[in-house]
C-alpha cells in the first residue's frame, strides 16, 4: 500500500534583526529563531552588542537567539556570548584559535552552529570536518577568500546539489541560507531537505523587515509541509 512521505517541519530563522519590535514581528509570523549580527567585515544587519543583549533578553526561551560572530578565537567568542547572553552562537568564519570543545565546555547549553560557505565541492570536506564538533551547520554563499570577507547577507544562492550532499552526510541539523526568497525557498527545501531555512535580504525592503515579504516567505515554507 503506497503512502506519500510527509515532509518534516522546516524551521524558519529570520536574520539581521535590528530591534525588539522586528524580533516579535518575525516570531508572530512563524519564525522559531532570529539572527543578531555583531561586527562583520561586510554585509547588512550589524547592530551593537548592547542591543543584541536587549533583544535576546526580550525573547521567550523557545525562540533561538543566534549571535552571528566574525570572531575566530574561541576565547573571544566565549566572551562575546557572555556579553550578549544569546542561546546560540553562529560562527561565521573559520575557527583559528582554540577549539569547539573549549566553546562547548565554557558555554554549556549554548548551541554552536558553524557556517560553511558553499563555493565548490570543498565545502563538503569542510562540513564533514566540523560536524562532529558542533550542534548544527549553516550553509551560506559568502567567501572567506576575498580581500574583504563576505560572511553572510550576500543575497546570492549557491549550488544546492552540494548543499544536499552535505545535508545527507553530516549527521547534524543543517540550515540553508543564501539568496532565499518567497519565490525560491520551496525549491530549496525540496532539493536540500534542510532542518531550517535562514533569510535576511529576502524579507526586507530598503533594509527594513517587510511584513508582506515575511508573510509570503513563511507561507512558501508552510506550503512544503509546514514551518516551526
Give a quick set of tags describing it.
228 residues, alpha/beta, TIM Barrel, eight-stranded parallel barrel, disordered N terminus
Helix content: 25-40%
Strands of the biggest beta sheet: in what spatial order?
1-2-3-4-5-6-7-8
Count of alpha and pi helical runs: 8
What general form does the structure show? Answer: globular
What is the CATH architecture assignment?
Alpha-Beta Barrel
Mean pLDDT: 93
- Which residues sit in consecutive blocks of at least 5 with pLDDT less than 50? 1-5
What is the CATH top level name? Alpha Beta
One letter per element, helices H and strands E, the order comes to EHEHEHEHEHEHEHEEEH
Helix/strand structural class: alpha/beta
How many strand segments? Answer: 10
**Radius of gyration, CA atoms, in whole angstroms:** 16 Å
Q: Biggest sheet: strands, sense, closure?
A: 8 strands, parallel, barrel
Q: What do we call the CATH topology?
A: TIM Barrel
Q: Measure the end-to-end span.
A: 30 Å
Q: How much of the sequence is in beta strands?
A: 15-25%
CATH superfamily: Aldolase class I
The tally of domains stands at 1
